[in-house]
Description:
This protein has six helices and two strands. The protein has about 160 residues and is mainly alpha-helical.
Amino acid sequence: MPRRAEVQVRAVEADPVYHSPLVTQVINKVMTQGKKSTAEKIVYDALERIGEKTGKPPVEVLEQAVKTVTPVLEVKSRRVGGANYHVPAELPQRRARTLAVRWLVDFARARREKGMVDKLSAEILDALNQQGGAFKRKDDVYRMAQANKAFAHYRW
């Protein structure tokens, strides 16, 4: 990471099947050990399963789930006068969406279903219904930010 210059943000390309950058982002997050074709198969199968269960276009369901899980505030640790304070801060859109996708995939991995396809589709459907681990994380982060509102003046 450069010390002075800004990091150039690379645009995420749309995936070949659904033509959605969000699906590409989910694929990249699911991918482990550089096995992109395996990650693609998992995500596409999960989206297909979501389409069957809901009867709606799967990309729209995924976008709605990500929107439901996207956080508004987070707490950042600031050191002021020898003490650390959790200062609430608003999130830029890009980081908020990245956190939402990360939480969806991480909590899908932690589920008890058999395969990753089942886990991911169930977590996305839970997020759509405002349930599941990812939605709970969003709620916890927001509650933490509200609880530390008193330290908002330390923001810079």
